[in-house]
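Private note to self, pasted from the team thread so I don't lose it. Backbone tokens:
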């Protein structure tokens, strides 16, 4: 099971302004590579700006305090944002979390088409996503 940093998600009420800021000030570029297709009818219908440095994406997502309720999940990654890792074997990673005693919310395909996602908290309450791309 391999993990690689995929994106950092910042929750905001200013998607356009934040996207412009990250383009102008940090000189990040728009990307069409590996952009998630949002499942807007399954739980999260917000707008998202996507920029990157050529390796790691920044997702500037519209804050949605109700996304956890809409999906029936305890962890809501759209309140404060999160850091996201991609894995090649989500089931193995879930087994690893179970062995470590770390609870997680399994969002499955509720937010992104073609991604299986889980979310959990680190010891300081920061949200961590791990996802796998599936056909």
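Design output:
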């Amino acid at each position: 099971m391999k993990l690689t940093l995929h994106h950092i998600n910042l929750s905001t009420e200013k998607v356009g302004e934040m996207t412009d800021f990250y383009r102008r000030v940090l000189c990040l570029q728009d990307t069409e590579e590996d952009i998630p297709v949002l499942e807007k009818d399954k739980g999260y219908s917000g707008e998202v700006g996507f920029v990157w440095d050529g390796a790691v994406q920044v997702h500037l997502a519209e804050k949605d305090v109700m996304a956890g309720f809409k999906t029936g999940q305890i962890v809501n990654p759209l309140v404060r944002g999160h850091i996201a890792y991609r894995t090649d074997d989500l089931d193995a990673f879930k087994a690893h979390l179970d062995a470590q005693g770390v609870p997680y919310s399994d969002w499955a395909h509720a937010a992104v088409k073609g991604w299986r996602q889980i979310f959990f908290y680190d010891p300081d309450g920061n949200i961590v996503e791990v996802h796998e791309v599936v056909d």
